[in-house]
Amino acid sequence: MVRRKLFGRDKKEADGEPSEEVPEEKEIAEPTWELPKEEAVKEIVPEIPKVEPAKTYEVPETKVTEVKVADRGSTIPYHKSLPDRFKYMFGDSGIAGSMENTDEFLLAFMAMGDRFKVEKKAMGSVQIEPGTAYDEDVFIRVSNDAVNDLLSCVTFKDFSDTYMRYYRNAEPGKFIKIELRSDISSLNKRGFARVPLLKLLIGAAR
To answer: What are the Cα distances from residue 122, in Å, to 102, 126, 133, 198?
Structure first.
């Protein structure tokens, strides 16, 4: 059936027929989103732990200690002869120092009526042997009293002081006499100046 409206009314209303009621359209409420409460946010977003600043440590100052070539306080064991004492000293790194850096040399000694020599060849070790030396760099004579006092020294410092005392204050029967057969500049070039024991034996120690 076709219905027509007359002056804004349905034809059925004009004919006295009841008109069909058109249900009113209800407005659909839009959903609202509520922000979660602070407690809920804490549950959703985990707390970021606080990062403590890294600890700093001060580096302690290191003291540089000078290493002495010869330990003048080194204890020397007992020896019955001067050649035996020299063998010990030249073999002790604390007393002899950097002996490997020296060039060849030859020292001749006269002590207690006997002759012996201290020799080092190029790139070799120090050898101490009895006998007469030829073409030596230094000739050293040690009196009997001086030998006895040198053998009674228990430290290298005592030995050095006693050796230099007999050399500087020579007396009849109490002396150490040193004759340089090579000039001192030549000996220093061969490494004598770097070895306290050699400086002592040629009388150049302070």
So the answer is: 8, 10, 17, 16
